[in-house]
Design brief:
heterodimer, A: about 270 residues, mainly alpha, MetI-like fold, 2 domains, two-stranded antiparallel ribbon, 14 helices, about 75% helix, B: about 300 residues, globular, ABC transporter permease (chain B), transmembrane (chain B), transmembrane helix (chain B), Sugar_ABC_transporter (chain B)
């Protein structure tokens, strides 16, 4: 009843459209450069692991993945930690300027990264955080914290207020109620919010690239190095690309049952 | 649910306020400061008042011309991708399988493009579209189309748009799917008894249930396409010529490329202001949709 005629065909075509470019990248990552440039082959005729081997053995390559994952994880932890109490506050209480504050937060989620690139560069250089994962993690808070507040507010509002009141009557202090009762109740919401923080921090490049130079360089910035005097190293580029897809794919697999609700930001 | 008035709630919100204020207000102050000044390097600044803003909004100057042209391109781009992604996303959501293991597979594949770093999305399409080594470019050229996104403006636009559709339609589809999932079966049974047509079911049941998530989808898609930077930058580099130079690309060129701080700051402020206004309109509409709902339910 909820479906439309020809739905199998439509969904299959769309999924093929999504997978084809990714397949092409995977396909190229297993080819040698000679095969890529000289012939057009639908699958690698002389499959090689050389491209991957180079990434895993060269420190300047694999350190990029470590750097990226470091700032993404720091960012996710900070975002969730500060957003949880705020989400509770917005959901339960009315206070001076609450609506304006919520809108202001939301507007920061929408602010273009390009606007902040230069001032962030100045700010983080001034406080000696430039070229550390902390700079990128804090910079990404500008769009992830508002998003986390927005998602968690939806989930906290789904918890009936009677539960709070009963807990306080039972003599729970506020922090204890928060950790022992509220957090377990909205665990799936926290998972969804963490997923989104991970996602938006992982895919962002402009700020991450602007705020790092050598030590904390993210993988996405290192990938631009494959252009050299000898021409493009397409195989290596493709292999590096495939490896950036894997963490995302793993995370999706873990939250697959919550994806639909998560994308509605907990408010359907 | 009526909320209790309690000013102490500010303490709960304070950490968020501190973190975001640190990343938003301080840098924005720098931008405002720069936007009023001119620099000739060596950290020497001169007061320029509203000069940059005047230049920015006057299409006859270099800065104004570049800004307004990129703004026009960006609005056209946003309009095109919204016109494609929203209907397509609805159709895909309606085509989702109802149950079984295929649901999980479809959801995972749909979400996949959303978690690929944006520059890798650019790389994927850069490779995929190349006439010499890419499947798409090679196929189109062997079919007799003269397709080359590096030299042809139309092809560059088509590539950037198809790339965005590939990248973000899933978001719209997943949002709509979540909206559809929340419709109780009883609604459909009632429609069946009334002998409602497929189209009537869509218009009277599914679309109203989706309107809230659709608003979120349109808002997110408009904002993200309006500040798009990485993907077109990787694929076309803003070219050929300036044909795919969107506002963010222009801004980064001026700010980090030429280090023209005053001009970049003035552009940033105007850019931010446009986004703030659009965001406010959406926010107002969205909160109104939210408050209307329970009343309707109460009446029924």
């Amino acid at each position: 009843m909820h479906s439309i005629p020809g739905r199998r065909l439509i969904i299959s075509l769309f999924l093929i459209f999504l997978l084809l470019p990714i397949y092409w990248l995977v396909n190229m990552s297993f080819k040698t450069n000679a095969e890529i440039v000289t012939t057009m082959t639908l699958w690698p005729h002389q499959p090689t692991l050389e491209n991957y081997k180079r990434i895993f053995t060269d420190e300047s390559w694999y350190s990029g993945y470590i750097n990226s994952l470091t700032y993404v994880l720091i960012n996710t932890v900070i975002s969730i930690a500060v957003a949880l109490p705020a989400a509770y506050g917005f959901s339960r209480y009315r206070f001076l300027g609450d609506k304006h504050l919520f809108f202001w937060l939301l507007s920061n989620r929408m602010a273009p990264a390009a606007v902040f690139a230069l001032p962030f560069f100045n700010l983080y250089s001034a406080i000696n955080l430039f070229d550390t994962p902390w700079a990128v993690a804090l910079a990404h808070c500008i769009f992830n914290v508002p998003l986390a507040v927005w998602i968690l507010e939806g989930f906290v509002s789904g918890v009936p207020r009677e539960i709070d009141e009963t807990a306080f009557l039972d003599g729970y202090s506020f922090p204890r109620f928060f950790v022992k009762i509220l957090v377990p109740l909205i665990a799936s919401g926290i998972g969804v919010a963490a997923f989104f923080c991970f996602m938006f921090s992982w895919v962002e490049l402009l700020l991450a690239r602007t705020l790092t130079s050598v030590n904390a360089k993210p993988i996405s910035a290192i990938m631009t190095r494959t252009v050299s005097a000898a021409g493009m190293d397409w195989g290596l580029l493709a292999a590096a690309g495939v490896l950036t897809i894997i963490p995302g794919a793993l995370v999706i697999w873990f939250v697959r049952n919550y994806i639909a609700r998560g994308f509605a930001l907990g408010r359907v | 649910m009526d909320k209790i008035v309690n000013q102490k709630a500010w303490f709960l919100v304070l950490p968020v306020f501190a973190v975001v204020a640190f990343s938003a207000i301080l840098p924005l102050m720098t931008v405002v400061n720069y936007s009023m000044q001119d620099t000739f390097g060596n950290n020497q600044f001169f007061w320029n008042g509203v000069g940059w803003f005047k230049e920015l909004l006057d299409p006859s100057t270099d800065l104004g011309g570049r800004f307004l042209a990129s703004l026009g391109r960006n609005l056209l781009f946003s309009a095109i991708i919204l016109a494609i992604e929203v209907p397509l996303g609805i159709v895909v959501a309606l085509s989702m399988p109802r149950e079984g293991w295929t649901v999980a597979v479809c959801l995972v594949i749909l979400a996949l493009p959303l978690l690929i770093p944006w520059n890798v999305v650019g790389t994927i399409w850069q490779i995929f579209g190349r006439p010499d080594i890419g499947l798409l470019g090679y196929t189109l050229n062997s079919l007799g189309f003269d397709y080359n996104y590096v030299s042809n403006e139309f092809d560059a636009w088509a590539t950037v748009i198809v790339m965005d559709v590939w990248h973000w339609t899933s978001l719209v589809a997943l949002l709509c799917y979540a909206g559809l999932k929340s419709i109780p079966d009883a609604y459909y049974q009632a429609a069946q008894i009334d002998g409602a047509s497929r189209w009537a079911v869509f218009k009277a049941i599914q679309l109203p249930k989706m309107n809230r998530v659709l608003l979120i989808a349109v808002l997110l898609r408009f904002m993200d396409s309006f500040m798009i930077y990485t993907e077109p930058f990787v694929v076309t580099g803003g070219g050929p010529g300036n044909s795919t130079t969107f506002v963010s690309i222009e801004l980064v060129k001026i700010a980090l490329g030429q280090f023209d701080l005053g001009k970049a700051a003035a552009l940033s402020l105007v850019y931010n202001l446009i986004i703030l206004i659009v965001c406010w309109v959406f926010y107002t509409v969205m909160t109104n949709v939210g408050t209307e709902r329970p009343q309707k339910k109460g009446a029924a």
